[in-house]
Amino acid sequence: MSFFKKLKDRLFTSSSKLDAGLEAIVERAPQAPVVDGPDSPAETPTSALAPSALPTPAVPTSILASPTLASPTPAPDADQPGPAARPGLLGRLFGRDEVAVPRRALDDAMLEQLEELLISADMGVDTALRVTANLAEGRMGRRLSVPEIKGLLAAEIARIMEPVARPMPIYPKKPQVVLVVGVNGSGKTTTIGKLASQFRAAGKSVVIAAGDTFRAAAVEQLQVWGDRAGVPVMTAPEGSDPASLAFDAMTRAQAEGADLLMIDTAGRLQNRADLMEELAKIVRVIRKKDPDAPHNTLLVLDATTGQNALLQVEIFRKIADVSGLVMTKLDGTAKGGVLVALADRFGLPIHAIGVGEQIDDLAPFDPEDFARALVGMEDAA
Question: Which of 71, 138, 201, 363 has a CA that sits 20 to 30 A from residue 10's CA?
Answer without folding.
Answer: 201
